[in-house]
Design brief:
- Helices cover 0% and strands 53% of the residues.
- It is built from no helices and eleven strands.
- The radius of gyration is 13 Å and the shape is globular.
- The model has no long low-confidence stretch (mean pLDDT 95).
């Protein structure tokens, strides 16, 4: 069974940077898009960024475009570099994997356990 193992996250001041990593472990993991969603308290879980299996196509939410960079250095590992962080970036961030780049949560087959990101002013 595939597991998505997340690392990174934590607390940072406004304008700071954090890096999240996600690795797929166990089981067969072929041709999956990988990326990150986030969920703030009282809000829905929404897409942050997702990249294709090859890493040559990446989609970003408007709210993070130009500040966040999603990279894929192996077929099973992605990194989310988050720069110029704002208080509204505070949320639990979830790694996800699915057959292709989509916005809808139910399209994704695998989820990480979530990691907290807190941005304070």
């Amino acid at each position: 069974q595939v597991r998505l193992v997340e690392s990174g996250g934590g607390s940072v001041q406004v304008g700071g940077s954090l890096r999240l990593s996600c690795a797929a472990e166990g089981g067969a993991f072929n041709s999956y898009a990988m990326g990150w969603f986030r969920q703030a308290p009282g809000r829905e879980r929404v897409l942050v960024a997702v990249t294709s299996w090859s890493g040559d196509s990446t989609h970003y939410a408007d709210s993070v475009r130009g500040r966040f960079l999603l990279s894929r250095d192996t077929p099973t590992t992605v990194h989310l570099q988050m720069n110029s962080l704002k208080p509204e970036d505070t949320a639990v961030y979830y790694c996800a994997a699915g057959p292709a780049i989509r916005d809808a949560l139910d399209y994704y087959d695998y989820w990480g356990q979530g990691t907290q990101v807190t941005v304070s002013s």
